[in-house]
Amino acid sequence: MFDVYITKAAKYLPNEAVSNDEMENYLGLINDTASKARRIILRNNKITSRYYAVDKEGKSTHSNAELTRNAVVQLFDEKFSDQDLEVLSCGTSSPDVFAPSHAAMVHGLLKNKSVELNSSTGICCSGMNALKYGFLSVRSGNSKNAICTGSEKVSTWLSAQKYNHEIINLKNLEAQPIIAFKKDFLRWMLSDGAGAFLLENKPSGDISLKIEWMESYSYAFELETCMYAGGDKLENGEIKPWSDYKPDEWLNESVFAVKQDVKLLDEFILPKGVESMSEAMAKHNVTAEEVDYFLPHVSSNFFVEGLKNGLNEKGIVITDEKWFMNLLRVGNVGSASIYIALEELMYSGKLKKGDRILLSVPESGRFSFAYAYLTVC
């Protein structure tokens, strides 16, 4: 078994930062009416700026694969070129196409050489799952290096035109032409971007982060779906997939829209997060005192105090100065968020050798959680 180090990190955030007041200039107005939920949601999540890979006409400036490629190529230099790469492991919840895989599409843009590919799907944990694949590949000796990524391109999923047919259908049925909160909610939560890590079996450069361990937990065996796209939720909690709908229903019911069961989110995301993090730390005999920087991916600042309180009740008291977050400035970039946050910390000048970093990533899809523990070398 070999030690594994994150030797370089990179991020790519498209275009200029978009303020709260500018969001509907990019995403558009549904039914030519400003969202009544937008200000309430933004007041709770406290995000002040984010990035979109679209212009004000709603036209794409980058694909998801291009965002990812633009992060990956920053990892190449005279010491490690694109010809040295052995494994490319990519995670996303918003691939450009169902098939081929996201990793294959990114590799197609790199045009370097034949490499081993892995694509991780899901929601926020897909980026951590991609990282774990690279970690295990290098750790086992299967490869000497791997590049792992997390990326999202959700702006086009959230554009007003994606909901227009549903609004027209509601008007035809003489119903109130307002989309459900479970759909409108996420329009003001998500943003675009990509992050990438280079993993190697020895440290390199001025700073490297040794991956001590990674752990993942799923509660899908006991909890129903909370966040989903490409289907809709039935009264019994089951998901009816897009392939079981008629083509006109795809548009009339916005079947491909990203949706969130907010009640389930509020009930389970924090308790299951505290439970899984407590188990992961206990398994590896890590205490709160042995964490110098805590990087929690949270979808909204609304959950921060609740997470602190829940951890405190479990005896995991991580003091405020150890928390490192950039959510308010870069937005919720899903699977890329943890990459973008760690890249910022890695090159902040704050880290010193021996510092220990705990990464925490929840996923509300069907409640999954992923953790990583790093040591600065």
UniProtKB/TrEMBL annotation:
Residues 281-360 form the Beta-ketoacyl-[acyl-carrier-protein] synthase III C-terminal domain. The keyword Cell wall biogenesis/degradation does not apply. Pfam families: ACP_syn_III_C (PF08541). InterPro entries: ACP_syn_III_C, Thiolase-like. Keywords: Acyltransferase, Transferase. NCBIfam families: PRK06816.1 (NF005293). This is Beta-ketoacyl-[acyl-carrier-protein] synthase III C-terminal domain-containing protein.
